[in-house]
Write a structure and sequence with these properties.
Layout lengths: L2 H21 L4 H10 L16 H7 L7 H14 L1 H26 L9 H17 L1
Helix pairs in contact: 1-2, 1-6, 2-4, 3-4, 4-5, 5-6
């Protein structure tokens, strides 16, 4: 576990989360920076992690549920973290997404409101890293 790499990714994800929350977009610079962090402590096996983005590809095909930025970010995270950590990140991110979406829907009474995915993916990343550190 390379702490510098994990902290850099966290900082990039926080910036991407703020942008996604405000503008509903993920600038390519964040994707590029995460891919560049993959060069820190790079392992060829980490490239398998990019397959985690395949379900995102199909989810964003309709253009309503998920954007291309979410797809690119999932690819970059997978490439940088490897299959196991990126899978855990996505699973925890989805759990947070579903929970936050349900709470917002109940609180606001609005169905079908778009909710940014990157902040919940960032939460999933934090949970994954904390589980690794505390284990």
């Amino acid at each position: 576990m390379n702490v510098l790499k994990l902290l850099l990714i966290l900082c990039i994800l926080i910036l991407a989360s703020v942008t996604d929350f405000r503008k509903r977009e993920v600038p390519n610079i964040y994707i590029i920076l995460i891919i560049l962090t993959a060069l820190i402590d790079f392992r060829a096996s980490n490239m398998l992690g990019s397959v985690i983005s395949v379900p995102f590809y199909f989810a964003q095909k309709d253009g309503k549920s998920m954007g291309g930025g979410d797809l690119k970010l999932a690819f970059a995270l997978g490439f940088s973290l490897g299959l196991a950590k990126s899978l855990m990140t996505v699973i925890f991110g989805c759990i947070v997404f579903i929970t936050a979406g349900a709470v917002c829907e109940i609180a606001n009474g609005k169905k079908g409101k778009l909710f940014p995915f990157v902040p919940t993916l960032t939460a999933g990343y934090i949970i994954t890293i904390l589980m690794e550190v505390l284990a």
